[in-house]
Structures are given as structure tokens and as C-alpha cells.
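Ticket #4471: complex job returned nothing on first submit. Input attached below:
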Amino acid sequence: MSIGLLILSEYIFIEPFVAGHIPEGTEFGFSLIIILSGLSALVLPMNVYRINILKNSKGKIGGSVFGSFIGAAAGACSCGPIGFAIISTFGSIGATSMAFLTNYEIPIRIAAIGLLALTYYTTVRSLRVECKIRPQ
Amino acid sequence: MNKKGIIIGVIVAIVGMGIIGSYSFSSSETVNLDMGRTHGDVSTAMGSPILGDPSALITIVEFGDYQCHSCYNWFHTHKPAIYENYIATGKANLIFVDLAVLGHDSPIAAQASYCAEDQEMYWGYHDLLYNSQESQIDNGWANSERLKAFAFSMGLDMDLFEICLDSDKYSKRVQYNVSEAKKHGARATPTFIIVGPDNQQEQFDGAQPYTTFKKIMDNMI
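Support reply: We reran it on our side without changes. The output follows.
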């Protein structure tokens, strides 16, 4: 996810050569991508485990998937190929929505990180309760 | 006496034409009047004037938008090194072709740049727009009034500029550039096509670092 987001946000290029750079002034955005990716890597597998092993509530995975998706979408700058595809397909409505995602990229990413952190906290708490060995 | 007058008149006319000619050659830039101009298979006829030596071996065609943050990043981070090492040295030149699709103000900003070109100030205005770009698309930084204010700050003839901008004089020119960009599969801003001496072309998108340009252009020379 980290690599994908870094490509999407133009920190890494794979064509025509593999190259990476952090333009001046975009260091904060870069840090948010790393945090977002790390949290997604923690939260998503934990919730998949909850569903597969414990056969328990599927509610929390909604938060983690939603948080990851929103965080990733914020990185789809309207300048990039995804933004362009949306603008080409949906015209001015697409352009307006992409402009919104670009304009509020940083706040959206922070909100996504907040959502993922909350999901992580509640998931860890419920896993502690559910995995506790009860004395017979 | 009449003969003398004619000779003096001719001399004055020749000297006058010489002064006008030398003034226009020493001007910082030329107006793009070549309606058949192509680089590789890209029609740059409606694009910007050429930045750098028109006879340079390599031409960099940049498809960009004045409201694009990646274009802003490339302009500030990588373009200076490319300018210094390739454009100023006569190895390459650069043409900007509008891919103005990101917001309502994008095509207007592109049109304004051509209104500045009418007064031989295209690149100055282009640079001013990228130096003045704000982080939000369509927040008003590139609306008609601000574009006129930019022109005023550069000392352009405001009557000419306002007539040009308000009449949408260059609307079709910008549309043509956008269609040319799309025709060549530009799917992001900025997209670059580097055209080499034998018309070999390399196309890629994104605000790629200087090293990428250097590798491609050094291979072409």
C-alpha cells in the first residue's frame, strides 16, 4: 500500500526509469502516507483475523477499510492518471470532486489516520476480551 | 537637390529598419507565429513560444496546467537545473502546451498567458503564474481579476490585455492544445514528450526529477 500511495502521489516513478524524490514542501504529506500505510498494515489484518478465526462482528473491518480507502483516495491528486481518468469520465463533476480531494488532501489523510487509529484501539481491546481464556 | 533628398531618405529608412530589426532580435522572446510548427509528431503550432534556442537538437514539450501542483513542483524543483544545463546552453529548448482541465480557472489562465505573449511577455507571465500558484484549485487565485492584476504588475499594456482576455481571443487556441495533449495520450499533468535530433520521442508523465531528463537527453545527444 505504501509503494502504491507513493507512486500515486508522485514520490516514486517507475517509468521511464525508477526514480524517487520528495519535493520541497511535501515532506508532511510524505510522512502522512507512511503513517497511513503503517496503520492500514496493522488494522486490516487484525480485522481479517477477527472475521476468519473468531467468526465475530464484521463491523470494525468497515472502519479500517473505509479509513484506508479514504486515505488512499486523498492521494489521488487530480494531476495524476487516476484524477485524469475521473475528470475525463465524469467531466465537470469529476473535476470538482478531484479538486476537493486535492485541496483537502492533508486534512482528509489526517482524518483517515484518526479513523484507523480509533479502529486499531477498539480492535485491540475487543481482541483482548475475546481471546481471554476463561477459567472453567 | 531632389536626388540628394532621395538618397538621404533611403539612408534614413535603412537605418530606421536596422534599429527596429535589432530591437526585435534583442527582445527577450519571440511570438509564436509558425502555424505549421511540429516537433516529432506533436503539433506545437498553438503552444507557447520556444524557450531557448529554436535550433537546439532536443525539444522538451511540456503539457501542463497552471493550477496543477505537480507542475508547480516540477517548475520549482527540477526545471531550474534543466534550464541551466540544457536550455541555456543551447542543447535543448522547451515548449509549453496547455492541458488546462483541472478547474474552471485553468483555461482562463492559459488564455491570459497568450494575451501576455501578444506583448512578448509569455514566459515572464508563465513564470509569474507558477510563482503565484496557491494550494487550492479554483480558490480565485487564477480568476480573471487576478490574472489582470498579474499583467498589471508586469507592466503590460492593460487596455490590450483586458480586451484580449475579456474577448476570449485565445479560447480556441487553448482548446486545440488540450485536444493535442489528449491525442498524444497525456493522462496526467505534467506530461512530457522529449523529441530528439532524429525525431525519436520519449514520453512520460509526472513531475519527474532532473536525473530522468538528464538520462534521456544525454542518450539522445
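The longest helix of chain A spans residues 105-131. Closing as resolved unless it happens again.
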